[in-house]
Amino acid sequence: MFALVVRFNLTDETAADRFDALVADLLPQIAAHEPGTLTYAVHTVHDAPTSRVFYECYRDRDAFEEHERQPHTAHFLQEKDALLADARVEFLTPTGSGT
């Protein structure tokens, strides 16, 4: 399994609305075209209405790299940059035997 967490801090509420529209277009494309993407969950941060956290879980590193090569992902990655104040990516390593 290959997983990561990304926190996007958006510049303002207008940017957050535009970002959410990009996400709404992205999610069905991931579900339809990426069998190796196990979880792709997007959350608004409580008490931080212009922040979003993505939790992404892939079958393996190859599935993540396939996700990164998809045209819908490339479009999202290109368009989101103009909306961000900053972002933080953390790659995760499973610990223990729990699921």
What does this structure look like?
The chain is of the alpha+beta class and 99 residues long. The chain has one domain: Alpha-Beta Plaits. The chain contains 3 helices and 4 strands, in the order βαββααβ. A 4-stranded antiparallel sheet has the order 2-3-1-4. α1 runs antiparallel to α3. The longest helix is centred in the first third of the chain and has 21 residues. It starts with a strand and ends in a 7-residue tail after the last strand. 10% of the residues are buried.
Q: Which regions are unreliable across 5 or more consecutive residues at pLDDT < 50? A: none
Helix count?
Answer: 3
CATH class: Alpha Beta
| Domain module tally | 1
Strand segment tally: 4
State mean pLDDT (0 to 100 scale): 96
User: How much of the residues is beta strand, in percent?
Assistant: 35-45%
Please state how the strands of the largest beta sheet are arranged side by side.
Answer: 2-3-1-4
CATH topology: Alpha-Beta Plaits
Shape: globular
Helical residues, percent = 40-55%
Class inferred from helices and paired strands: alpha+beta
* Straight-line distance between termini: 11 Å
- What would you report as the Rg, rounded to the nearest angstrom? 14 Å
What's the helix-strand series? EHEEHHE
| Main β-sheet description | 4 strands, antiparallel
Task: Supply the CATH architecture.
Answer: 2-Layer Sandwich
InterPro entries: ABM_dom, AI-2_Isomerase_LsrG, Dimeric_a/b-barrel
GO molecular function, one term: monooxygenase activity
Keywords: Monooxygenase, Oxidoreductase
Protein name: Quinol monooxygenase YgiN
